[in-house]
């Protein structure tokens, strides 16, 4: 009951009347409970961020595989005694 009285007094003291009285009451009574539009916006943001995470994980996997292929190529050249230019190195 006290919360309702506080909201009504706050409404009376507002210099301009709100466009949507229901939203005004819900915002004041809910004390931080997000509205439907806010929830939808946050859900859309979550979906976008999840897509970005998935894309970045895919890119990370591709780059790791590419790096591994370079590492494997480099170690094979070292074992064969060739440098990155393909020239045989006999100065051991």
TrEMBL record:
Record carries keyword Nucleus: yes
Task: Give the chief site where it resides.
Answer: nucleus
Recorded superkingdom: Eukaryota
Task: Check the record and name the InterPro entries matching this protein.
Answer: AMY1 (IPR026060)
Does the keyword section mention Mitochondrion? Answer: no
Going by the UniProt record, its keywords in alphabetical order are: Nucleus
**UniProt similarity note:** Belongs to the AMY1 family.
In terms of PANTHER family, this protein maps to:
ASSOCIATE OF C-MYC AMY-1 (PTHR13168), C-MYC-BINDING PROTEIN (PTHR13168:SF0)
Q: What is this protein called?
A: c-Myc-binding protein
- Organism equals Orchesella dallaii
